[in-house]
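Final report, closing paragraph on structural work. Over the funding period we assembled a curated collection of sequence-structure pairs, and we close with a single example.
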Amino acid sequence: MNLPRYAEYKDSGVAWLGEVPAHWVLLKLKAFTRFRGGGTPSRDNLSFWNGDIPWVSPKDMKFERIKGAEESITEEGLSSSSSSLVDSGRLLMVVRSGILKHTIPVAINDVPVALNQDMKALSFSEQVATSEFFLRWVQGLNEVLLLAWAKQGATVESIEHSYLAETLVPLPPLAEQSAIAAFLDRETGKIDALIAEQEKLLTLLAEKRQATISHAVTRGLNPNAPMKDSGVPWLGEVPTHWDVTPLKYLVSLKSGGTPSKENLDYWDGEVPWASARDLKSDMLGDTTEHLTALAVASGAATLLPVGVVLVVVRGMILARMFPVTETLVPMAINQDLKAVLPKVGLNGSFLAWLLRGTADESLQRLDEAGHGTKALRMEAWTSMYLPVPPEAEQREIVAFIVKRNGELDSLAREAERAIALLKERRSALVAAAVTGKIDVRQAA
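Its predicted structure, as stored:
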């Protein structure tokens, strides 16, 4: 889409903003905006909660229009807190949250709401600015505003109110703001639809990947192979020549631990030390944290060999997935992981794919470990019956899965690249429109 530039520009006086259309005015945000914060009613008083007033927090800021919230409060709860009722049509902004590392969430409330303390509502002078234009302005300048508004020295990501209020904003006339907002609503809607298609494709590819693994490790590669009842309801039939054996007879387990954090001689060395956050891919060659050789030599940590299968046995991640990875280098592990070592007759890579392919069944064997954390019930997990083909067939299955997954992963990478390009295009278009680098009035 080729759009014209404005006929005449002027210097905005702001380095990161550059030139703006000559007829636009430059005003500090505080000159035309009223800011309102929020608060949290006491959790101890049940009469304050589950009322009719949506109580918006950062977790609700997933869409550009807010029509409700995960939590709600009562009139009594509203009056008891530092929050107040925000009329519809205001610009809501997250001002304190980990998400501010990379994004400033903004939205417009379509219904009256209350806010928690990590939010602000911006009400604009009706003669000067619209919420719809400013929403796009924040989106388009997200990266530079994160730097300009960041609270210096904060331990938690937050926006410094004084920096926000002093921001110089280039404002076109109201009719032009509406035209820009309408143009961007239409064009970003088209781009968002394309992104949604690619995200749907990613979901389908992930489902296909899991189905491929599960079928290969539980049914084999020969569709004409004679089958038998496994005797395990969730497993169903398996090839006649396969064994069905409890996990505990197929493997040995090794636990991990955390060396003393107070002993600095144990940390920041060359020995990888894996935790649940490191198990993000099928193969693991390095970790976020490292131990020293002294930590291993002193017995504070155990070094595991190459080719060990690692699983998460405790952690919040088990609420949604069952990570399994193979180690590419010797490493130690923390107490939330188990090293699963195959016994004679079981190929290590096949074991990893088998555990991935039966992940749903592993997740049926969880207990609550406190504070929402999940943990595997080890006796129940190791008693899980698993199908085991002959070793030669195990290797064939591994080769098939690796090849097929390579094809699926290649398609997924293409989809991810398409999403990244579409998001870049979206951001560039929004930024160009709200800063006057392109004139969209005729295209709106």
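The chain has two domains: 25-171, 221-388. The domain at 221-388 is CATH 3.90.220.20 (Adenine-n6-DNA-methyltransferase TaqI; Chain A, domain 2). We thank the funder for supporting this effort.
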